[in-house]
TrEMBL record:
PANTHER family per UniProt: DNA-INVERTASE FROM LAMBDOID PROPHAGE, SERINE RECOMBINASE PINE-RELATED
Keywords on record: DNA recombination, DNA-binding
InterPro entries in the cross-refs: Homeodomain-like_sf, Phage_Znf_bind_put, Resolv_N, Resolvase-like_N_sf, Resolvase_HTH_dom, SSR_resolvase
Highest taxon of the lineage: Bacteria
Domain (Resolvase/invertase-type recombinase catalytic): residue spans on this chain: 85-229
Positions of the UniProt region annotated as Disordered: 58-78, 218-239
Name this protein carries in UniProt: Recombinase family protein
Amino acid sequence: MTTNTVPAAQVERHDCPKCEAPAGSPCRTAKGKVAASYHTGRFALVPALKAELTVKTPADRHPGKPWKRGAAVSQAPAPTPGAAIRIGYARCSTVGQELQSQLDALARAECTRVFSEKISTRVKERPELDKALTLAREIRTAAPGQPVILTVVEMKRLARNAAELMSLSARLQSEGVQLELLSGPLQGVYDPHGAGAIVFAVLAVTAEVEREGIREKTLEGLDTADSNGSHGGRPTVMDDDKLAVARARQVKGESVTSIAKALGVSRATLYRHLGG
């Protein structure tokens, strides 16, 4: 066996928990062809390859061609759980914000794989977070005893509100995935079972209380400003001086279009003020 097929041989000593390819055979796709890469859950069973999270199918297995069962081999014994596999997730809300500081922090935390995205907090679907959680589930399914940790820099990168946080907590709990926070008052690793589940609940309540507090302060600020004669929104483009000039020019018979252009305002704005 050539050197470049050694990783493939190690992987193929295990059955694939995803495509059900037997030991001795490459992985296969849903269309019945040889997969280009071995499924993560399969090679995660090989201690030497756990840090890779991607192993290409060698050319002699004919990736992309119709799948055929390979020669039977002796299966490897069940692996002994090793160090936890960390899967990182980074997110920022707008194009103007930067992700690099989060990516650097996740690299220092020795995350094996990092998923990142720039997406507004108003968008409910987060494709890269879903990919991170799917990968964690695949690893846990293939090796139930293998610790898997979802690592983020701070809690707000994961959820917008208490409901989302509780939903995420339930998903992590059902799949046995731990959560790690790299910063903040609750920095550390939390198991979603036992005491960890209580932490998730506290985080959810805290997030909801904080959101309501911000909303209440905003409304109080607007109310105070309104009572002081200050109204929210952009300042008007028309002041008393401009309005006086506009009315004087209108009396002389000048068109609204000409007046608006001279004053640097829109015709709609000028009509609105002259009509008042």
